[in-house]
Amino acid sequence: LAKTTQPISMDSYEGQEVNITCSHNNIATNDYITWYQQFPSQGPRFIIQGYKTKVTNEVASLFIPADRKSSTLSLPRVSLSDTAVYYCLVGDRGGGRRALTFGSGTRLQVQP
Amino acid sequence: SAVISQKPSRDICQRGTSLTIQCQVDSQVTMMFWYRQQPGQSLTLIATANQGSEATYESGFVIDKFPISRPNLTFSTLTVSNMSPEDSSIYLCSVEASGLLSSYNEQFFGPGTRLTVL
Q1: Residue B27, phi then psi, degrees to nearest 5
Q2: Counting beta carbons within 10 angstroms of the beta carbon of residue A54, is it exposed (0 to 12), middle (13 to 18) or buried (19 or more)?
Q3: Alpha carbon distance B33, A77 (integer Å)
Q4: Whether residue B31 has pLDDT greater than 60
Q5: Which of A82, A68, A66 is closest to A19 using CA atoms?
Q6: Are B69 and B57 within 8 A, CB to CB?
Q7: Nearest alpha carbon to residue B106 among A71, A59, A107, A48
Q8: Which of residues 4-33 of A touch B (CB under 8 A)?
Q9: Which residues of A, range 41-100, sit inside 8 Å of B by Cβ?
Q10: Which of A4, A5, A102 is the best mutation test for B, with the most CBs of B within 10 A?
């Protein structure tokens, strides 16, 4: 499984755009990039998943460059409720081992 | 999506005792996973539980300490045996979601069981 590296923590203010970058230099051809969000006292929640280029949903955007060695989760106009830990995971979306390997995550603190 | 519940939500236990944590899913799923999350830390996989077969444990986790049952496609239990303060942690179950539950290979997590061992 490809190892991921992301900042330990980030601070932002309400209304700002937040970009969290994750590096995964050893990503394999079959690997997808997935981001999870975890609020205190809750289990992680799937946010977004992508393979290459850009993916956007109602919550976030995921930017993946052509070499796929990194990815950036973009949260537009954050609010206080976006304060959480964000995990970047890389793995095969298909068959084989399906358990998730969580890295250290990025603790995002949004200030008023 | 899948809705997952865990019981108990939290417990305080004495050293040397055992606690069984239940995980109930509202859909039939093949693979269920048990994770541990120590305070302020990331999640660590304990084991993978498939219905009808023995659970597969990760390095550092053994069946005698963390026996797991998977009697059907919607339920699993994790027992934390002979507890010590080092077992104080949040224990989470999750299920793989694909096909009808999700177009992605994502996992849905339960709310967790917060265990404190005195």
Answers
A1: -135, 155
A2: exposed
A3: 34
A4: yes
A5: A82
A6: no
A7: A48
A8: 32
A9: 41-46, 49, 87, 93-94, 98-100
A10: A102
Using an 8 Å CB-CB cutoff, list chain A residues near B102: 46
Mean pLDDT, rounded, for B24-28: 92
| Identity of residue A29 | T
Which residue, among A7, A17, A14, A2, has the nearest Cα to A106 in the 3D structure? A7
* pLDDT above 90 for A2: no
Looking up tokens 């969000």, which residue turns up?
A: A37
Can you list the pairs that B24-28 forms with residues at least 24 positions away whose Cβ atoms lie under 8 Å? B24/B74, B24/B75, B25/B74, B25/B75, B25/B95, B26/B2, B26/B74, B27/B2, B27/B74, B27/B95, B27/B100, B27/B101, B28/B73, B28/B74
Q: How many CB atoms lie within 10 A of CB A50?
A: 21
Q: Report the relative pairing of strands A31-38 and A84-92 from DSSP bridges.
A: antiparallel
Q: What is the model's pLDDT at position A95?
A: 46
Tokens of residue A42, six digits? 């809750």
Concatenated DSSP letters for A17-40?
-EEEEEE-TT--TTEEEEEEEE-T
The average pLDDT across A25-42 equals: 91
Please report the DSSP string for B60-82 in residue order: T--TTTS-EEEEETTEEEEEE-S
The token pair that represents A20 in the structure block? 């969290």
The residue to which tokens 């850009």 are assigned: A54
